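Slide 14.
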Amino acid sequence: MVVLDPALFPSGRYMVSVDYLSPEGVRAINSSGSFTLLDRTFIRIPEPDVIRGEDPYVFVQLLSGNGHPYPGGLIDMELPDIPWISPDPVITNTTGWAVFELELDTSVPLGTTRMEVSYLAKGGNTVSDSESTFLSIKAPTTFQITEKPEELTLLDTVRVQGRLLDDKGSGIDGEGDVELYLNSELLGKGDTEEGGWFNIVVTVPRFARLGEGSMLLEFQGLTDERSEWYTDSQVIWVVDISSRTRIEAEGDISVPEPSLNITLRDEGGDPIPYAPIRIGRDAEFNTYITDEYGSIPLTLEDVSPGDRIRMDFAGDRGRSLLPSNLTIVIPSPPAKEGGSLLALIAPIALLAALVIGSAAVILRLRKAGRDVGVRKAHRKMEREAYPFTPANRSQKMIVDTYREVMHHLGEMGVIKPRGMTPDEFSSAIAENGEGVRDMEPLTRLFDEARYSDHDLSSHLIGKARELKDSIERHTKPEDASLLRKKVESKETGVPGKVERGIIWKMKMDHDQDLKELLGSKEVDG
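Slide 15: predicted structure.
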């Protein structure tokens, strides 16, 4: 046996002769012949998959014995199960790759088929190396959607309907082969029936992210014997996800002054803060802003049994909240028993009522915190202190909030003198404690609402309500004496120009506006 060193004998054809050497040392030629020395090679076929009509390419790489690319090698391919597909041999390029393009039309059967790949040595007549594997032939798939949602609401039922088709336009049927996702979360699966038809019905999750999102319909192949027949396919579209809202009203709705706590909630039951709600009856409506807890505490005035109080939330597209409304009816007082007896004593009761009526009125007026007349008198005094009509509803809401704080302080005995401006009053009491420090930013909002000529955002309205709540929480009756001293010791009058942190535009009579600015009824020059 002879072992040839590849460094001395490269691949190629060699002549060989056999000599006989006699005992006497005489050399004689016995015979001669030739042989071909071939290189040691390897064939590599990565991912032998093709797609009918879209991706008909098969890649084969030829490597030398030491693993380096082998250029110039002649590669042949055969498909024994579909012999009518017979590509021509291909020579490897400088990186050892040979690329075969198969002519695959829709008549070629799907699935796996045997594939034989050979390296033909120089001359093309000798097989130096071969590799046998399986080729996967797939069909491209597409969705034909006939119904899909684009506007979603939490907890609503939605439907996606359509067909799954192959490259011939034929339907693909299978079990659980189509999946539907919302923002990457699987909502449900659906089977495709005869003709490839599918119908997926799901419920939008309660806690889905509101606003713009995406829906994905995906096919990832079949799970039966046709698992290698089709390509994956998907369709993505944009959806808008919203939440329903509801208005809740709790409290005593009996006359004369029903007191309510109104709360706005989303579909998940969470309160919605800083949202405007219109509340009123007939044609008279006011807009209120929910606080940080989504609530509006409200006392209804001048209502009668049978009045219908309507509450409307117009929705908020920026927060993907849908509109809602609630109507309550003020009930009649409960009827008393003993109608005939009542008829007999009615004149006596009327006379008694006339006798004690004056005393009852006096006693009720002494209940300052609860008396309707006192509250109305206070509000009238507040309006007289700031006699103007706001240009729009948002300005009025902030001004009314400021007036409520002044009313609260007034009930404690802390009253702004007529000669003192709102800014001076704020600086006089703001030095005392955490709550009244909020008087300064509230006064700035009041100034902006009072002297500007533009609408104010709902954020500023909500901020005003937040400051009001803070002031009312932190000012206690025991603080009243100190606050009054602060106000009394503050120098009144205006020594010079009033400096404010805002810019406003006069919109009333100039003299009257200046009086309001300075907090005085007398204006010089």
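Speaker note: The radius of gyration is 46 Å.
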